[in-house]
Design a protein that fits this description.
- It is a single chain.
- This protein is an all-alpha fold.
- The chain has a domain of 155 residues: Recoverin, domain 1.
- Helix content is 52%, strand content 2%.
- Helix 7 packs antiparallel against helix 8.
- The N and C termini lie far apart (78 Å).
- The mean pLDDT is 75.
- It comes from Tetrapisispora phaffii (strain ATCC 24235 / CBS 4417 / NBRC 1672 / NRRL Y-8282 / UCD 70-5) (Yeast).
- This is EF-hand domain-containing protein.
- Keywords: Signal.
């Protein structure tokens, strides 16, 4: 293994150790990814196979796929999208499967660390963006985007991810009415159902909180200085 690749691997390992330490002490509502690349695959190769169904690709096509607005460079949003950190929430495993729980938030601080780390690796001229030429030079040396402990980099919400990874493959062309039900279909349906229930409960709790004022909340709104002296009757 080349020295530069060893240094890159070491840097990403340090990043993952720090991220894991932070994850151990974080808000239980924040999502923690546990998936890692299969043995023998780099994170980038894993991402391209899983998210784009591409076992073979070149740096030009990788860049074109992830330069979202075709600007000719990667900015913070592109990096976040590449690593699946631009989503509003992570439901289940993020791919349309998994069990429903309350850990759906994206860790914003870790997202910032990911962006900073990637720009330090590739942003040679330090202009806060990764030009196509900088990425191609990075790739030409045999480097690939590293595993930073945030999963495979799902680009979409859990509904679209289910379509991309299961429905399109097994149902779209031959079974659009899903007459042949797989365990993945059941798992996704349950995930969708429980997530919908949770959303409705949050809306109801929010509505109740907004319309019902408790005694403590009412008292907190009273400014004693504004009460006329004749009404205080020695109580204040």
């Amino acid at each position: 293994m080349k020295l530069s690749n060893i240094l890159l691997l070491g840097s990403s390992l340090v990043f993952n150790i720090v991220a894991a330490d932070v994850a151990a002490n974080k808000n239980p509502e924040v999502n923690v990814e546990v998936e890692t690349p299969p043995e023998g695959l780099s994170w980038e190769e894993w991402h391209m196979q899983h998210e784009h169904q591409m076992k073979e690709y070149d740096p030009e096509s990788f860049f074109a796929l992830h330069d979202i607005k075709k600007k000719g460079y990667f900015d913070d949003d592109d990096i976040l999208a590449l690593y699946g950190l631009n989503r509003g929430e992570v439901v289940g495993k993020g791919d349309g499967m998994g069990e429903h729980d309350s850990s759906e938030l994206i860790d914003e601080e870790n997202s910032k660390r990911v962006v900073t780390f990637i720009k330090k690796l590739l942003d040679v001229d330090d202009d806060s963006r990764i030009a196509k030429e900088e990425y191609l030079a990075f790739a030409k040396k045999g480097h690939k985007f590293p595993d930073l402990g945030v999963g495979v980099g799902h680009h979409a919400d859990f509904e679209l991810e289910y379509e991309l990874h299961h429905w399109n493959k097994f149902h779209r062309d031959t079974d659009p009415d899903v007459k042949n039900v797989h365990k993945e279909d059941i798992e996704h349906e349950l995930l969708h159902h429980f997530h919908e229930i949770e959303h409705e409960e949050k809306v109801q709790r929010g509505a109740s909180k907004g319309t019902v004022i408790t005694d403590d909340e009412l008292e907190s709104r009273i400014d004693i200085k504004n009460i006329p002296k004749k009404f205080k009757n020695g109580f204040f």
